[in-house]
Design goal:
The chain is 30% helix and 27% strand. By secondary structure, it is of the alpha+beta class. It starts with 19 loop residues before the first helix and ends in a 14-residue tail after the last strand. It holds the Pfam family RNB.
């Protein structure tokens, strides 16, 4: 565990008594922080660990004086208690380590920051639980507000994935989830046949007051730990991802006819005779966007962004709709996709496959040669895609100036570059994070790492999708100046304090940020992103920059999008894999049909649910990547690796290995050359004796000493140590 400097001031040791005023403050603070409890003078002496006779003798007179001036209360039994009312807040638990958690208030204005709660005061609350907390009137030694949990209002989860450890008389499940710090006791009769070291899903059944560990019951046996399929299923179960589609919803999907009726075609704008194609990754099957291109008689261009018309097939109050809402997004793990919609829809009816008539919802632009939008039209259409491109093939046709539709692709690329240039001139921020993909064998074992390269063709598709999303949002907003209920994708301006800290780290690599205005922030960040391309610090600084930004979210509030520099923005272009896009399609058609604005509250609840599901998907995707990174480093060559310090906490230093983009930790407890204090403000560790500093962004050399697939962790040590330990490949 990490350590903050906590050395006691020894000024009063050896029998010397503190001043009466200091002792009075200490007693009052103790009683205030134990609101609702009563203590005798002897108990107060014991709790405050008073050992010298002078201090002990001073307690009773001080208590009497505090009672006389109305500062504390005294009961008929000669017990003392606080008279100062504490605050009570409701929030979510962030269980950072086994010793304490933070409570993040529902109302950020309710307190001065998050509330620190020690493990003994959590009342058996677990990570992400909603709780009611009593906030102590005085702050703790850390300078933070502290408190204790009074009541668990809502459990975030009661099922956990973990590895079974069986002894002759009992069994425990050791959870995979890093923020579950308690092993779960399981009676041998509740193991459901699970064997020692197998992965299981366990459901909490009881946690009695005073018990150190909760009791649970195995509900699903996943299989032998370390096997690829078992580990992926473990991640799915850990994040509550579904293993199969409900039969009722599947049946509804399969019952939808493949043919399009003449009546349906008649009410749509027909684009079937206009050049149209899709451009997607090589392994994609759900093609939810297509682009059409034609030259108009007036010399201008007509560019159509055509999106799969999912809501034509998925109707409200159906099993399909219910399941799509519950999932809210497709999830992309390292080796599979967990789709939002059944395969018959996602890869079949809705997918804009080539040489098939398809129903679409479109945003069609009339543009000049400078890519300026002269007019646009939004409505339901029918298309017939002429070609399915993978990104690499489309890029090759542009590069070689030959092949199918190379002239159209080239012209679209020129237009996209002009749109992109204007977007950045208007203040958009260019975040292009490094994406790593694993090459797996048939058993799922990682054979190598591939860093995905973003080329012009990727940016081409991105720009036209952004353009469609922007115009759909603006179209609805402008109808009644934002009074109509709609689903927006918003992104708040960054917190300047966090940006100042990030700016300090960037400066260590020789990069200067200007933060005087939002426009300066954008241009300065873009300059930084250009400068770090291909450099060792690229991934670390990109990730730190993103962390210093606000999180994008779905909401009915018509706010802007800082990162894109759009006054209004939505998600319209991916309804096969995102439920918010389905919401947008429904509201959009409702307004196109002349409908009145519905109540915002039900739509806002759906937005919050969708944002939560988006986070769950991102966490699961990261967990699957981390699992493969741990496995990859367990199999990698034993040698010293160059890395960059990517995070600093009181309990360890995160290092990203430059060669493999894998992140591990050097634990403070294993750094035996000095005693290190954590400087939170500057995100660094400082050696007490040597004054050696380990800071975010430092270039270091490390070696792998342990890999733990269960916990998905890579333990490192700094390579300056002379003795090389034997590496532990996996910890079970």
């Amino acid at each position: 565990m990490g350590r903050k400097s906590n050395r006691r001031n020894s000024k009063h040791s050896g029998g010397e008594s503190p001043k009466a005023s200091q002792l009075a403050r200490k007693i009052k603070s103790f009683l205030d922080n134990h609101y609702g409890e009563e203590f005798s003078s002897k108990q107060i002496i014991k709790k405050l660990e008073m050992r010298d006779a002078i201090s002990k003798g001073a307690v009773e007179p001080i208590l009497i004086k505090l009672v006389e001036n109305g500062t504390i209360a005294k009961s008929p039994r000669n017990y003392y208690s606080s008279k100062k009312d504490p605050e009570f807040i409701i929030g979510k638990v962030d269980y950072v380590n086994p010793r304490f958690a933070y409570i993040i208030p529902d109302d950020p204005e309710a307190t001065d920051g998050d509330i620190l709660v020690k493990e003994a005061d959590l009342k058996q609350a677990l990570d992400d639980d909603r709780v009611r907390v009593m906030v102590y009137p005085t702050k703790g030694r850390s300078g933070r507000s502290e408190g204790r949990v009074l009541e668990i209002l809502e459990r975030a989860r009661d099922e956990f994935v973990g590895r079974v450890e069986i002894s002759p008389r009992f069994a425990f499940v050791v959870p995979d989830f890093k923020k579950m710090h308690k092993d779960i006791f399981v009676h041998r009769g509740d193991l459901k046949g699970a064997q020692h070291n197998e992965k299981v899903v366990v459901k909490l059944t009881e946690w009695r007051e005073g018990d150190k560990n909760p009791t649970g019951k195995v509900t699903r046996v996943l299989g032998k730990a370390g096997v690829h399929e078992v580990e992926i299923h473990s991640i799915m179960a850990e994040f509550g991802l579904p293993f199969e589609y409900p039969k009722e919803a599947e049946a509804e999907a399969n019952a939808i006819p493949d043919t399009i009726s003449p009546k349906e075609i008649k009410v749509r704008k027909d684009f079937r005779n206009i050049t149209t194609f899709t451009i997607d990754p090589a392994d994609a099957k759900d093609f939810d966007d297509a682009i059409s291109y034609r030259r108009l008689e007036n010399g201008n261009l007509e560019i159509g962004v055509h999106i799969a018309d999912v809501t034509h097939y998925v109707q409200p109050k159906t099993a399909l709709e219910k399941e799509a809402y519950d999932r809210a997004t497709s999830v992309y793990l390292v080796d599979r996709t967990i789709p939002m919609l059944p395969e018959h829809l996602s890869n079949g009816l809705c997918s804009l496959r080539p040489n098939e008539d398809k129903l679409t919802f479109s945003c069609v632009f009339e543009m000049d040669e400078e890519a300026k939008v002269l007019s646009h039209w939004i409505g339901r259409t029918i298309i017939h895609s002429d070609r399915r491109f993978v990104y690499e093939d489309a890029q090759e046709n542009i590069d070689k100036q030959s092949g199918d539709f190379f002239e159209e692709l080239t012209h679209l690329n020129e237009l996209a570059k002009k749109i992109r240039k204007r977007r950045f001139q208007n203040g958009a921020v260019n975040f292009e994070t490094v994406e790593v993909k694993f090459k797996l064998d048939e058993k799922g074992t990682p054979l190598g790492l591939i860093v995905k390269e973003r080329k012009d063709i990727h940016k081409l598709i991105e720009e036209f999708m952004l353009l469609a999303n922007k115009h759909v949002a603006e179209f609805i907003f402008k109808k009644h100046n934002g009074m109509d209920t709609f689903v927006y994708r918003t992104h708040d301006a960054p917190d300047m304090d966090r940006l100042e800290i990030f700016s300090g780290f960037a400066k260590r690599f020789g990069h200067q940020l200007k933060l005087d205005s939002e426009r300066q922030v954008s241009s300065s960040l873009n300059k930084l992103m250009d400068e770090i391309q291909g450099k060792p610090e690229q991934n670390v600084l990109e990730q730190l920059a993103i962390r210093s930004m606000a999180k994008a979210k779905y909401t009915t509030e018509p706010k802007g999008h800082f990162g894109l520099a759009f006054a209004h923005y939505t998600h319209f272009t991916s309804p096969i894999r995102r439920y918010p896009d389905m919401m947008v399609h429904r509201l959009l058609q409702h307004y196109l049909d002349g409908g009145k604005s519905p109540e915002a509250e039900p739509w806002e609840k759906k937005c919050i649910h969708s944002s939560d599901r988006e986070k769950r998907a991102a966490d699961a995707e990261r967990a699957s990547i981390k699992y493969k990174q741990v496995e990859y480093m367990a199999l990698a060559e034993e040698k010293d690796y160059e890395g960059i310090v990517s995070g600093v906490t009181e309990w360890g230093v995160f290092v990203e290995i430059t060669e493999t983009k894998c992140e591990g930790m050097v634990r403070v407890a294993d750094m035996t050359d000095d005693y290190y204090d954590f400087d939170e403000r500057n995100m660094r560790l400082v050696g007490s004796r040597s004054k050696k500093m380990i800071t975010l962004g430092d270039k270091v050399w490390v070696r792998v000493v342990n890999t733990d697939i269960d916990r998905r962790t890579i333990d490192l040590e700094f390579a300056e140590n002379d003795e090389k330990p034997t590496r532990s490949r996996t910890s079970r």
